[in-house]
User: What shape does this take?
Amino acid sequence: MTFSWVQGLVCSDCGEAFDFRYLLKCPKCGGLLDLVYDLRQASLADLVDDNFQGMWRFHKVLPIRNPAHIVTLGEGSTPLIPAPRLAPLIGIKALYLKYEGTNPTGTVKDRTSSTAVSSAKQFGSRAITVVSTGNAGTSLATYAHRGEIYSVIFCYHRGDPIKMSHMSLMASKLCIFEGEYDDLIRSVDRCVEEGLAFDGGATRNPFKHEGKKTIAYEVAEALETVPDFFFSPVAVGEIFIATYRGFDEMQKMGMVDRMPTMVCCQSMQAQPIVAAFQSGKPFQPTSVQPTIAKGVAVGDPGPKGPRVLEILRQHSGMALAVSDAEIQEAQRLLAEREGLWAGPTGVVSLAALIQACRNKAIDSKSSAFCIITETGLTSQYPPAHGQVVKTTLEDVRRLFSCV
Amino acid sequence: MTFSWVQGLVCSDCGEAFDFRYLLKCPKCGGLLDLVYDLRQASLADLVDDNFQGMWRFHKVLPIRNPAHIVTLGEGSTPLIPAPRLAPLIGIKALYLKYEGTNPTGTVKDRTSSTAVSSAKQFGSRAITVVSTGNAGTSLATYAHRGEIYSVIFCYHRGDPIKMSHMSLMASKLCIFEGEYDDLIRSVDRCVEEGLAFDGGATRNPFKHEGKKTIAYEVAEALETVPDFFFSPVAVGEIFIATYRGFDEMQKMGMVDRMPTMVCCQSMQAQPIVAAFQSGKPFQPTSVQPTIAKGVAVGDPGPKGPRVLEILRQHSGMALAVSDAEIQEAQRLLAEREGLWAGPTGVVSLAALIQACRNKAIDSKSSAFCIITETGLTSQYPPAHGQVVKTTLEDVRRLFSCV
Assistant: This one.
C-alpha cells in the first residue's frame, strides 16, 4: 500500500505530463502545474487514515511520499460549524462555517505551510522563503522551525503589528521591505529559480497549495454530501483552486455525486477576477486600493488568476466583490450571532454570501458553505465597552436585574 | 441507548449520593460534588461517537442528557504534538504536548465553557457569570453568545489589554472591578446561589469542569496508552481534577491499565498546593505575588485546593513550582524547537517538566505529557527583530548566502 497516491505532474495549460519532481512551471510551455494522483473508486472511509492527525488523515491525496518528511503541528480537522442563527437572519436555508482560526497559528495558511515545508524536506531543500502581508509568513516560518529548515520571510513595512511580532518570533530571517512589491517578488522568484530556497509562495508551487485541498475532503466527510454553494475568498487563488481540485478528485473517486457551485469572493479594492468574470473579458491584473482585508489585497495574482476564471466559466460559478463596510458587518454579525471572532480577511466569503442573499443572487432554499480563513485574535478589535462596578452585594445583584 | 451515561452526583467529602440536578455543593455537608456515570466495561472505540465533533465525541461521559442542549463551537480534538527536538534537549525519552491553543477562543477554557453553557441551557438558566483574569471570561462569554444566554463577566481592571478587548467583544455585560477580589467573589457567589445566574466559575460547579475531562480521553485515544507523567497547571484545580477523573473513569471501564503520575504545576508566586504537599501539612491558602502567568495566580483555590492535595497524596503524585524566568525559558524553547507559540500561563506545565528533568526528579527514560493551555496570540510578544532590506536581485540573493 503506497502512502501517497501521487504519480506526477501535469500542465493545466498544455496538458503535458511530467514525472514526480520539484517543478515550479511547465518545462514545455511555462504553464501552471498540477499534481496527479492515481485516483481509484473509493469511499471517503477508505481514504482516511486515522493513524494520522488533522489533514494528514488524507495523506493518500497529498504529495508527500515518505511519512518521515511530514512536518506537522496538527493542522486541519478544523470545526465545521453550523450557523443556525445567522442563516435565517441573512436568508438562506443552511449555512456552514469552516472555522480555520483553530489551526496552530490561527489561519488556513497552516495547511499549505505543512505541505510546503514537508515538500521542501522531501526534495532536500535547506531553506524556504515567502513574501507575505502577515499570516502566510508567520505560518511558513513556524513550520520551517518545526521542520528545522531555514526561513527567509519578506514582509512589507506597513504590515499588521501583532502579525509582524508573531512573524519575527518564528522567522529565521525577517526582512522588512519598503520599496516596490513587484521589484521584490521578481528578485525572490529569481532566487527560488536558482535553487537558493524552496518556493513558499502561493502563485506557482504545485506542492504547496495541496494542503488546502483537504478543506474540501473534510467538508464532504462532515456533511456526508456537498453544499450547494462554496464561498471561497480569492487573493492569488490558492484556496479556490485547491478546494475545487478536492471536490473534483472526490467526484472522480465516486465519493460525491456533484460539485458545489464555486463562488469567488474578492474585495472591491482588489477584484481583478470579479471584474473579468462579470465583463466576460479576458483576465487583466488591476491596481489595488487600501482595504482592511489585507490578505486579499492582490491585483496581480499571477497564473492562478486566469485559472480561477477558467474554473468559474467552465462550471457556471459566481464571482462577487465586497466593500470594507460589508466585511465589518460580517465580522460583527459572526461574533454577535454565532460567537466566532474572525479577522477582516477571514470573513470575506461570509460578507459575499450576505451580499448574495440580500441581492437574491442565490436561492434562499440553498445550503451554503463559507471558509472563515483566520482567527480574530491577531486583528484589531472594536473599542472595548466595559462598565466600572463596585463589589458590594447590592451593586453586584443589580447587574443581574436586566436578565 | 442513552445519550449520556450520567446518573447523579456524589459528595467527594461525605460520600452522600444525590439525584441528577443542578447543585453547587453537597446539601448535607457543603462539600465538593462530583458527577457519577454508569461506567461499564467498554473500549474507547465503543465510547466515541464520530457523529459529533471535538470533545462531544465523548458525550457519553459528559453531563448533558439532551443533545439539543449542547452549545459547541467545535472545541476539543486539539492536536497531540510530539516534541522530538525538545525531549532530548531537556532530557526525557518521550514528550507529548496537548496544544489547547487551537480551541475556538485559543485556550483550554473552551472545553469547560461548552459544558458550562450547555448545562445552563439544560437547567433553564437565562444568564451565566464568572470572575476572570482573561481567558475564562472571554471563553464563557463566547459560548454564552453562541447559546443565546446573557453573560455578566467580571474582570479586574489590570487584565491583559488584548484579552480584555476580546472579552468586551463577547460579553453581554463586561464589569470592570478595581476593588478587592475577595469581596467581589463573595457577592457573585451569593448572586449565583440566589439563582440570578448560572455559576460559570471554576471552584464549585461540578457540571462546568467536566469538559476538561475529555483531555484525558483524547490523550489515551491518540497514544493508545497513558504516559508515565501527566504535567498539569493548577490554579483552582479544574484541569488537574478533571483529567484525573478522566483517567480514573477510563481505568474503571478497562480502557487503560494504569494511571499516570499526576504532577501539579504552580507558579512560585502562587503555590499553596505545592507548599502544603512538600511540607506534608494541611492545605492553607497563601498570598499571591505578581507573576507573568496570570492564569495560575491563585492563592485561595477554594474546595478544589484540598482535593488536588488529596489526589497527590493518595496516588504518589508530584508538585512543582516554577519561576517567571523558567516560564519565559519554556516559552522560548517551545517556539524555537517545536514551532509552538504559547502564552506564559500556557507553558507552566512545560516549565515544571524542564525543572524536573534538570533536577533529575523524574527518570529520563520516562514518557511525559504537558498541557499547553493557551495560544500565544493574545499574549505579549518579545521585541520584534527584522532587518530592512532592499529589493534588487543582488540584495535579495545575499540574504540567502548564509543558508
